[in-house]
Design a protein that fits this description.
mainly alpha; single chain; Growth Hormone, Chain: A; 467 residues
């Protein structure tokens, strides 16, 4: 139910994030959250629980785009990945708290506690400033400078003078309409309409990063761990885990938190590209080992849903049963150590400002829609292909993901949003050109030679040449 409704929320967030701003949208998201929890607390029929879960899904879809866009726009390049990594940790930590509370109290009491959290969140958001980029897009220059000073640690105007100057220059670029960009003049036209913003989705500077993010989202669902997670207890049971299946699943959940903490610590040193490719290679190895174990030790056509029909089956050597347990843990660890979270981080970085809200919402909607399809079809796939067969399928998809992402995944670590945007605006670059240059002088040189190289962003102020 949650995955089915989330795409609707993601599409709505694309419409609301840019006109209302990131902060106001995040505040409004708390309304369906609160109503959903209250309905679940007072539920006296199954349909009321469904409605409550539907509102939860709507709220989750609504919050993805404004949260990730906000974080992407306020963070400095050197700390962006680390701070975005906190969102992944707090997400799994919050879910763990819910499960822990559910073991000590009735589920209605858990729902009532969660009902109060949206009000606390909304109040806290009132003390956080809007992003400087959005304020500049609305010509609120003084508020934008005040916001940047707050975000950089309540510093003086002199400390953020250069960064604010760069933001204003970049703001004039993304506020220009396409005609003024082509003529290389300052744009006197009003802000773009919703139709014009939707038209930005057809431009290469949006299509290229959108294609990359969508491919990464597809891989996160089609490589197994997220799809198998609702059935993980029975999967452990099918592999004859030497640890009690429910306890093994709990340990896996704890390891997921450790994996996300490791991702946050490693990404600044390894970069996003190397870390992601390393995790995909780990997925290939883990799925290959688990598949080999399944074809060697499990009966032909064995699947976890028909485990009762194979109740007499036992692996003779008990020590061998540690192999699938260990590699299932490693499979999950590699998945949560950047593989599943990386597309969400790139979602906040790679889209141009003009289409960032809409593109982020549409990409998130695709993620949730694919998640719904993957989870609903898992039963049929495993029953028809067998448990070793489905892991072989995930192994093939992981290998395809390793090859494809090697050619298309860009390195955005320590790159400013402007440098990333200029990279995708350069029509001379293909999707397989994954190196994003950070040399400002080189970027200015490209701008001056725009007619020769096909550079697709000429809406800079004349003042840009003074940088």
């Amino acid at each position: 139910m949650v995955f089915l409704i989330q795409p609707l929320g993601s599409i709505l967030s694309a419409v609301l994030t840019d006109p209302l701003g990131r902060i106001k949208t995040m505040i409004l998201v708390n309304i369906p959250f609160a109503i959903g929890w209250f309905l679940m607390y007072r539920a006296s029929a199954v349909w009321e629980i469904f409605v409550g879960m539907g509102l939860q899904g709507l709220a989750i879809g609504l919050l993805e785009a404004p949260i990730l866009t906000y974080l992407g726009e306020i963070c400095e390049p050197a700390t962006r990945s680390i701070l975005l990594g906190y969102t992944l940790i707090t997400f799994t930590f919050g879910m763990s708290i819910i499960f822990v509370m559910n073991t000590f109290m009735a589920w209605r009491m858990v729902a009532m506690i969660c009902f109060g959290l949206p009000f606390i969140t909304a109040i806290a958001l009132c003390f956080i400033p809007e992003t400087p980029q959005w304020l500049l897009s609305k010509n609120r220059v003084a508020d934008a400078e005040k916001s940047l000073r707050w975000l950089r640690g309540w510093v003086s105007s002199e400390v953020i003078a250069q960064e604010f100057h760069d933001l204003k220059r970049h703001s004039e670029s993304f506020k220009s309409c396409n005609e003024c960009i082509k003529q290389d003049v300052k744009c006197p036209h009003p802000p773009p309409t919703m139709r014009e913003k939707l038209a930005e989705m057809k431009r290469k500077r949006t299509i290229k990063p959108f294609a990359i993010v969508v491919i990464l989202f597809a891989l996160s669902h089609m490589t197994g761990v997220l799809t198998m997670r609702p059935y993980m207890v029975q999967v452990f049971k099918a592999y004859e885990s030497p640890i009690a299946p429910d306890r093994a699943a709990m340990i896996m959940s704890l390891l997921d938190n450790v994996a996300q903490l490791a991702f946050m610590c490693l990404v600044h040193y390894t970069g996003k590209r190397k870390l992601y490719l390393s995790m995909v290679f780990g997925l290939v190895v883990c799925t290959l080992v688990i598949t080999s174990y399944g074809f060697i030790f499990l009966p032909q056509g064995f699947n976890s849903f028909d485990y009762a029909h194979h109740s007499n089956f036992r692996v003779e050597c008990k020590g061998v049963s540690y192999i699938p347990l260990i590699f299932l843990y490693l499979w999950s660890f590699f998945s949560f150590c950047g593989f599943n979270g990386m597309p969400w981080i790139l979602l906040s970085e790679m889209f141009p400002f003009k289409s960032r809200g809409i593109a982020s919402g549409m990409a998130a909607a695709f993620y949730y829609l694919l998640g719904f399809i993957a989870k609903k079809t898992y039963y049929d796939l495993e029953v028809s292909m067998s448990l070793p067969g489905i892991t072989l399928f995930y192994c093939i998809i992981s290998l395809f993901g390793l090859i494809s992402t090697y050619y298309i995944l860009p390195e955005t670590e320590n790159r400013t949003l402007e440098e990333i945007e200029l990279h995708f605006m350069d029509n001379s670059k293909k999707i397989i050109d994954w190196k994003i240059e950070s040399n400002t002088a080189e970027l200015n040189k490209r701008k001056n030679n725009k007619n020769k190289s096909g550079f697709d962003n000429r809406g800079f102020e004349t003042e840009c040449s003074k940088v």
